[in-house]
Amino acid sequence: MSLPPAASASPGVRPRSFAAFLEHPALTLRGNRHRRMRAQNFIVEWIEAGTEPFEVESTAEMLLIFPDAGAVISPAGQGPGVVVPQAGSVCVLAAGRSSVRLSAPGTCAVIASHRPDIEPATVLNEAAYAQPDARIKPTGQPFRRRPGAPLVQVFDMAQVPAPADNPRLKMLQTDTLSINWVSYHGVRDRKALSPHSHSDLEQGSLALAGNFIHHLRVNWGKDANLWRDDEHLAAPSPSLVVVPVDLVHTTEGVGDGHHLLIDLFSPPRADFIARGWVHNAGDYSASVTAA
Fold first, then answer.
1. 74 and which of 53, 84, 99, 265 could share a cystine (Cβ 3.0–4.6 Å)?
2. How many CB atoms lie within 10 A of CB 275?
3. If you average pLDDT over every residue of the chain, what do you get?
């Protein structure tokens, strides 16, 4: 179990946040178990549910991930629910309040930029964001859904194609979020890792199947007081690491079996959209008010 200290006010790299969800007490609501963690621009709720419904609410679109069970999603006041027929689906859910009922006991991850229904005190790493990082680009609302879209869109990730020039990843977006779906079997090739950093955004990496090691490095600058040792962080599933601005990172799947890692960004990765990598980018248009 690992949670961060309060965020540093120094100009260097801030502490990462990490939680292996099952190592933390759950908030139980209607028999369903909830664990919550955040970045500056998004919040992740991990729900272990039976067949009793749970509610979600957001002022922007939400992403719902169903790793091991289908569901019925019922937006408030909109009549019959939308059936999510199978596990391995991702749903884009319109802003507002909705009820979700799994078709069998299982799990669900809810990712959103704004959750007015969640009390900050119930978020595992809330203290890490007592001081916002001014370097992080605000979420804003840089994309607008084109007219006529349904309230719930369901994507069977087994049928979503990967970009021809980036076959490791499948990508989706909402109005304020984007994800990379990284799925493979067996260990990741240690000769083909991808260490990198971001100058104006945080990256969340949500482990949903398999075991991983997050390799984390602070680059040396002139001020040696800001240097830190490399970290090789063991991450079981389910878990979430939030990588701060300027922290070099790459993730390695270890051990046999299926690995599923979801990388999270807010605002959506405009660079990936521009390259044609985001599967549902055609459902959105850029906002004239984008920052």
1. 99
2. 14
3. 93
The residues with which 67 forms a beta bridge, in sequence order, are: none
Q: Which of 192, 157, 174, 209 minimizes the C-alpha distance to 63?
A: 174
What pTM does this model have? 0.93
Give 3-state DSSP helix, strand, coil % of the chain, rounded to 5: 5, 45, 50
Question: pLDDT tens-digit profile of 125-184?
Answer: 999 999 999 999 998 777 999 888 889 999 999 999 999 999 989 999 999 999 999 999
- Which residues lie closer than 8 Å to 241 by C-beta, 6 or more apart? 16, 17, 18, 204, 205, 214, 233, 235
Give CA–CA dist 238/109, Å, rounded: 10
Place of tokens 């319109």: 94
**pLDDT per position as a tens digit, 54-101:** 999 999 999 999 999 999 999 998 878 999 999 999 999 999 999 999
Distances (CA, A) of 180 to 90, 167, 168: 12, 11, 9
CA gap 244, 126 in Å, rounded: 15
**Tell me, what's the pLDDT at 11?**
58
Asked whether the beta carbons of 210 and 260 are under 8 A apart, the reply is yes
Give dist(CA 17, CA 8) in Å, integer: 12
CATH class belonging to 17-118+145-286: mainly beta
